[in-house]
Specification:
The protein is an alpha+beta fold. It has a single domain, classed as 3-Layer(aba) Sandwich (Glutaredoxin), CATH 3.40.30. The protein is built from seven helices and four strands, in the order ααααβαβαββα. The protein has a four-stranded mixed beta sheet with strand order 2-1-3-4, sandwiched between helices. Helix 1 runs antiparallel to helix 2, helix 1 packs parallel to helix 4 and helix 2 runs antiparallel to helix 4. The longest helix has 60 residues. The termini are far apart.
Length: 221
């Protein structure tokens, strides 16, 4: 009887030991995967930052020398397409797969600032070159959206994605979180009187909060 008890105890200890090993390995692998995703997002950010700095330098150079508007507009279009592809693909999928933690929020803030700089630069180029493309800025709730907001934002994101795909270079689609606690974005939200999320701002003039279909957006494009 005593031998049987010792055997059962040994089996239990082995099972506990194996369970602890699997648990710790799982935690380690989860940490490595999360770190890898954060590193990938950071890599995408750095590439985008370099493109924007190059484009912004072109824009600032307008004040000193006469530059080719066609080249500046094309660079602007290329960056807008990159933003669209990033939001639609890699960044969105990584964020969906990850828990929203401080590291991910920080990376998201960086992208929001980058996209805001692009938006401002896009306004300048449009005015300087008298271009006819449309700035479509999509302010949404990122940190704590309600169930209703999540459904509405998914619908709007898909709709805007279709419009961008259809309109192509005629639309600069710029998604920006409106609740990331960044003062520069808060000032712009106040300036354009964005009072609820999500809101679509077209050409710094038209605000849309309720959408039933593409026509509600496309009428301003």
């Amino acid at each position: 009887m005593e031998m049987k008890f010792k055997n059962q105890k040994w089996v239990f200890l082995k099972a506990l030991f194996v369970t602890l090993i699997i648990f710790n390995v799982g935690i380690y692998m989860g940490y490595k995967l999360e770190a890898s995703r954060a590193d990938k997002i950071n890599e995408i950010y750095l590439e985008s930052e370099m493109m924007l700095l190059d484009q912004k330098l072109q824009s600032e150079a307008f004040n000193v020398v006469n530059l080719d508007c066609d080249a500046a507009i094309q660079a602007n279009i290329d960056f807008a397409n990159k933003i669209f592809e990033e939001a639609l693909g890699t960044i969105h999928s990584y964020e969906k797969a990850n828990r929203i933690n401080e590291a991910i929020i920080f990376q998201h803030q960086r992208f929001d600032l980058l996209r805001t700089l692009f938006w401002i630069n896009s306004i300048k180029i449009k005015e300087k070159c008298n271009s006819n493309y449309h700035n479509v800025v999509y302010f949404y709730d990122y940190l704590e959206p309600s169930a209703e907001q999540i459904g509405k934002q998914d619908f709007l994101s898909n709709l805007l994605g279709e419009i961008k795909a259809n309109k192509g270079d005629n639309v600069m689609l710029i998604p920006i979180a409106g609740d990331n606690g960044l003062s520069s974005i808060d000032l712009l939200i106040k300036k354009y009187e964005i009072i609820e999320l999500p809101t679509i701002l077209i050409d710094e003039e038209f605000k849309i909060t309720e959408v039933e279909g593409m026509g509600d957006i496309e009428q301003y494009l």
